[in-house]
Amino acid sequence: MFFRERVEPVEVYLLRPDAYIVWHDPVVRERLSWYYSVMIDEKPAKFMIAKRIESPINPYNEKHSWDELWSIHAKLAEEFAKTWRMIRDDELKLKELPKPKYSFLDLKIVLSRKLMDPCRLCEWKCRVHRLEGRYGICMVDREAIVHSYFHHMGEEAPLVPSGTIFYGGCNFRCAYCQNWEISQTNARYGKRMNPEKLARIQEYLRKTGARNINHVGGEPTPHIPFIIESMKYLEVNVPQLWNSNMYMTHEALHVLKDLIDIWLPDFKYGNNDCAWRYSKVRNYYEIVTRNLKIAYSSGDIIIRHLVLPGHVECCTRRVLEWIAKNTPNALVNIMDQYRPEHLVLKYPDRFPEINRRLYRKEILEAYRIADELGLVYKPVS
Ligand code: SF4
After folding, report:
1. What is the pTM of this model?
2. If I label 245, which of 4, 173, 215, 290 is the partner at 20 to 30 A Cα–Cα?
């Protein structure tokens, strides 16, 4: 078994002083203002607000059609957005809202379960019946698979210690994946968990010092229904962080987006050829840019870009230019830690062009492009 249950209370002042210094940066404070207010427990996380928005129907009743559920979801999403703005602007307190019998969150639980069977949670649209125990490309079936959870000290400074949950399985097949054991080869050998247990883990991480709950993998997208349901049982206030390749369908993203306080998406490639060669996914650029725009408009965001050897022009430049044009207020983490891993190491003849670390001039060029475009990356890179 590859399950690792490790929670280490940490003295963050000693280990990562930048985790505190970063909040003195006025740009970081402004761009991550919602996340910050939930992190310090000044505001309720979005999932807690979603629980107070009343659903006019019992969404668990099978008599409601898919179209009917979606149309109610659209109306409640507007109500949620209005309520969230009032809470953000101190015009309303969460405790002033009664607890309804069925909530916006209940509706999302039902919609996300339906998206799982037949599965079209991500753009592979495998359409397998996961509730019957079948699985598609991602290798996740009807239960959450968790490989480990702990306070992660290696994330971006505003996020640490990050209460990170590593889910098994992934819808990408990245040749250089650093988590290839849990995302690919041993994806299905983690610990099976129901939503109540997932909620208990989140509570434990928060109560022992986590600034957020970081859903990552592998890839969290195949786990969306389990994660959303876990929020029903979660009673502690904690920012929800989505750490993802952003290859989910439009529908899955719409169910998820009202519940996420801070987005931590990867934007890996500037074109579809590189995405196919290294991650074996189609239409990458169109899908991920579509989803990044939605995430950007719905909350605080730090976009990650891992610079690949020899890909500064075709990927890094295009990615950074797209960010500057479409999501200019996003914080950006330009990552320089690429190292050959997984298939790149195993089959060096198949990927010779990325079978090396970055040259110094490549990362300096990435920073130069970001500076030229006016992107904010230094506090989080
Ligand atoms: S989440 Fe998994 S099963 Fe569902 S469509 Fe994506 S890869 Fe296929």
Report:
1. 0.95
2. 4
